[in-house]
């Protein structure tokens, strides 16, 4: 039984003296899957997946540090890689000779994906400037000096400026450039992709950070000889996917450090950024719905996807070690709740964490803690949405007879990873439902 009488003093409520104490029976919440219940496919399958996407080369690039003083490089660089691959993907779609694909809808979806990624990059750059430890460290060029040297004020290597000059892609490229201009408005610098830069802000050294020429050299696959246009589509889609998951992993490492250092506002901002990455991953996976059914199923056979995974008991997406690690790290954030609330976990399962959460929610003095707790639960919601959507995409693209879907259902149907926070809100809701001091 949990007593809520402390709440009346805390909120100075005007409950009638005859109002009884509120007490509820103990909630028996089922336990969610543990992180150990989620694992990658076999090493053979994961290695084949990595080699198909040229991930060893990407990981070498992600691990490199060309700007030691710029602590945001490990987060922003993979996000820029995903964006640059998206530009290449737009070129691939518009150059596709097949008369039966829906180019109009493909173009709309690619534009949406590019704009979603630009919004994410702007958030990462804005967070960087709000943190005194990272502010002003980004590698930028002052355009006031470039005018004297008559050099370009935008990237030489990125495909976006080139797309803006091609008749087929001119309109979509101009709309994307307008998005860059508007999204980067709150940042002290802009990306330097050919956007108007009306305010004359410094521009990011995009070519030095992103290395577009190297990224585009990784376009080839070990299966280019099969002459299936969906091969390039699948390849680009998953390279974008992997680049975004890399950014998320680095952000999650920062979240842990921010919580350890009691920098809860930073932690909340970083968690919200990870949430947006999960939402972007959903947009990326939805691109599979646009692939031609017969061409994709032929590609599935040509790549040996079914043969390789015949004895696997995990979904196709768990061939990605980055995704599995990212999922585990997100779910493990529930271990940080007692640390945030500054309360020890009762080994006997007592309600100490729940009661402290109720106090934090009610007393508005620790609003930074509320922000990070809300961000954690929002992140959990985004994860479940992703795996639910992924299951639907897999069913539509490969048919309902596809194997290995049970674990996906478990993930989005399982109970919350934050049972104490859930119970705290349940009890507070019950309290206010039975309070006589509320008037409308």
UniProtKB/TrEMBL annotation:
Q: Which residues form the Hs1pro-1 C-terminal domain?
A: 184-434
Q: InterPro entries of this UniProt entry?
A: Hs1pro-1_C (IPR009743), HSPRO1/HSPRO2 (IPR038759), HSPRO1_N (IPR009869), Trp/Indoleamine_2_3_dOase-like (IPR037217)
Question: Residue ranges under compositional bias (Polar residues)?
Answer: 142-152
The molecular function GO annotations come to:
heme binding; metal ion binding
Q: Where is the Nematode resistance protein-like HSPRO1 N-terminal domain?
A: 1-181
Q: Where in this protein does the record put region Disordered?
A: 131-155
Query: Which Pfam families does the entry mention?
Result: Hs1pro-1_C, Hs1pro-1_N
What biological-process terms (Gene Ontology) are attached?
Answer: defense response; L-tryptophan catabolic process to kynurenine
Q: What is this protein called?
A: Nematode resistance protein-like HSPRO2
């Amino acid at each position: 039984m949990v007593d809520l009488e402390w709440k009346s003093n805390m909120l100075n409520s005007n409950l009638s003296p005859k109002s009884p104490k509120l007490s509820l029976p103990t909630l028996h919440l089922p336990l969610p899957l543990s992180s150990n219940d989620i694992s990658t496919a076999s090493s053979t399958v994961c290695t084949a997946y990595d080699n198909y996407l040229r991930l060893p080369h990407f990981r070498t690039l992600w691990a490199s540090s060309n700007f030691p003083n710029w602590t945001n490089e490990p987060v922003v660089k993979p996000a820029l890689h995903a964006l640059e691959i998206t530009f290449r993907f737009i070129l691939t779609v518009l150059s596709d000779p097949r008369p039966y694909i829906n180019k109009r809808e493909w173009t709309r979806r690619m534009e949406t994906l590019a704009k979603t990624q630009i919004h994410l990059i702007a958030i990462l750059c804005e967070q960087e400037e709000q943190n005194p430890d990272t502010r002003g460290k980004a590698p930028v060029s002052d355009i006031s000096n470039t005018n004297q040297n008559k050099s370009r004020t935008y990237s030489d290597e990125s495909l976006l400026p080139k797309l803006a000059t091609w008749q087929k892609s001119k309109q979509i490229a101009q709309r994307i450039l307008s998005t860059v201009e508007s999204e980067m408005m709150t940042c002290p610098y802009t990306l330097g992709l050919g956007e108007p830069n009306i305010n004359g802000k410094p521009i990011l050294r995009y070519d030095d950070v992103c290395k577009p020429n190297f990224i585009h050299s990784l376009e080839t696959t070990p299966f280019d000889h099969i002459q299936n246009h969906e091969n390039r589509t699948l390849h680009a889609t998953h390279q974008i996917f992997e680049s975004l998951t890399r950014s998320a992993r680095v952000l999650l490492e920062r979240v842990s450090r921010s919580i350890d250092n009691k920098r809860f506002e930073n932690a909340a901002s970083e968690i919200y950024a990870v949430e947006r990455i999960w939402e972007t991953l959903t947009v990326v996976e939805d691109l599979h719905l646009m692939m031609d059914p017969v061409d994709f199923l032929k590609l599935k056979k040509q790549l040996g996807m079914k043969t390789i995974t015949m004895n696997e008991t995990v979904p196709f997406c768990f061939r990605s070690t980055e995704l599995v690690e990212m999922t585990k790290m997100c779910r493990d954030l529930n271990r940080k709740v007692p640390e945030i609330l500054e309360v020890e976990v009762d080994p006997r399962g007592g309600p100490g964490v729940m009661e402290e959460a109720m106090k934090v929610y009610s007393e508005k003095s620790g609003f930074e803690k509320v922000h990070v707790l809300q961000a954690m639960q929002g992140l959990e919601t985004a994860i479940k949405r992703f795996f639910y959507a992924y299951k639907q995409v897999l069913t539509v693209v490969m048919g309902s007879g596809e194997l290995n879907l049970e674990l996906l259902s478990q993930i989005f149907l399982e109970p919350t990873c934050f049972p104490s926070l859930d119970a705290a809100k349940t009890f507070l809701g019950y309290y206010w439902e039975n309070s006589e001091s509320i008037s409308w």
